[in-house]
Specification:
Helices cover 63% and strands 0% of the residues. It starts with a helix and ends in a 7-residue tail after the last helix. The chain is globular, with a radius of gyration of 12 Å. It is built from five helices and no strands.
Length: 87
């Protein structure tokens, strides 16, 4: 695995709250190796956000901001929901 993917994998498992460790970490374990450079850019952008904000989007407590409605976020959400892609 290249250094960028290793760094993102580490960041995925070392968040501020355990719930997001599981959201990001499990997704990264399953998908990080197959993400393109552009998808890695989108994923990295998600990792820069506050954990609580992303958790609210993933849990459905708050609507997703349009600028973060990317294919990578939809894949993360589908992964959390057992594979069902939400639109």
């Amino acid at each position: 695995m290249d250094p960028r993917r290793r760094r993102l994998l580490f960041r995925s498992w070392h968040r501020g709250i355990r719930e997001m460790d599981l959201v990001y970490g499990r997704f990264a374990d399953a998908h990080i190796a197959a993400l393109s450079d552009a998808e890695l850019d989108d994923y990295e952008r998600l990792l820069e956000l506050r954990d609580q904000q992303v958790f609210e989007w993933v849990s459905g407590a708050q609507p997703l901001l349009p600028e973060y409605d990317t294919p990578v976020f939809r894949r993360l959400l589908a992964f959390q929901n057992g594979g069902a892609v939400q639109k």
